[in-house]
Amino acid sequence: MNRTCHDLFSPFNMPLFYQSGSRDIQIYVWKLEESVDELCKISGISRSEVDLRFNHSSRCCEWLAVRALIRTVLGPDVLVAYRATGEPYLKGSSLRVSISHTRGYVAVAFHPTCHVGVDIEYFSHRIDKLVGRIMSCGEKPSCELGADDKTWYYLLVWSMKESVFKALDISLLDYQTGIRVSPFMLGRSGEASVTYSYLNWHYPVDLHYLRTDDFVLTWCCERSFFPSSKCAQ
After folding, report:
1. What does the alpha-carbon distance between residue 42 and residue 51 come to, in Å, rounded to a whole number?
2. Do 17 and 4 touch, CB atoms closer than 8 A?
3. Distance in angstroms (rounded) separating the CA atoms of residues 85 and 228
4. Model confidence over 136-162: pLDDT tens digits?
5. According to the model, what pLDDT value does residue 45 have?
6. What is the pLDDT of residues 76-105, one digit of tens each?
7. 2-113 and 119-221: same fold?
8. Distance of CA 52 to the CA centre of its chain
9. How much is the average pLDDT of 46-72?
10. What are the C-alpha distances in Å from 90 to residues 75, 77, 79, 110, 169?
11. CA atoms within 13 A on the CB side of 50
12. Where are the domains of the chain?
């Protein structure tokens, strides 16, 4: 189900869209158009606190937008915190959370019980130079693609691996061989099969993606039988 930001949050010019995916994942994406002062007002964070934390406006706006979005969706008593590993969690809520940002956008994903991963990446041909480091031969497109479509495909593979990395909370990983993306048909939205491998153990992940004119968005969650038992039974 898709809704516009006006349908969900009429008081503010907030998320670009809302996507409710499978397995109870809720995805919110916010296009950053507000000033720092406007974001402070929505997030409930003082400008003095922001000035102490940041000296770079774009990073400051991303940080504020994440907190403003979470505050609006879940209420003023829910705060973002981080574990020693860098994994985000919510104080005041049992929901699992994942956070991502790219040029001009922030994305947040929630799941009621399972660890979730979300990633958003702005379109850029810079990814073309990294293909040899992040993709194996078996992950290349199964059909011939034009130059821009190849870049979109590479960007989606990179983003998918980032989402899996977050959802499984992996500390050490070879992006080229540790997470493998099965070839998929490039579209505006769809699903892909991804496998995380470690030694002789293989863990499948069902992943969803969306491609807009500006960015790709990918998301997934762990399965209930994941050995770490992070997903509530």
Report:
1. 16
2. yes
3. 16
4. 888 988 778 898 999 999 999 999 999
5. 95
6. 999 999 998 889 999 999 999 999 999 989
7. yes
8. 27
9. 90
10. 12, 10, 6, 10, 16
11. 23
12. 2-113, 119-221
2-113 CATH choice from 3.10.20.30, 3.20.20.80, 3.90.470.20, 3.40.50.720:
3.90.470.20
Q: What is the pLDDT of residue 172?
A: 66
CATH number of 119-221: 3.90.470.20
Taking residues 47-69, report their average pLDDT. Answer: 89
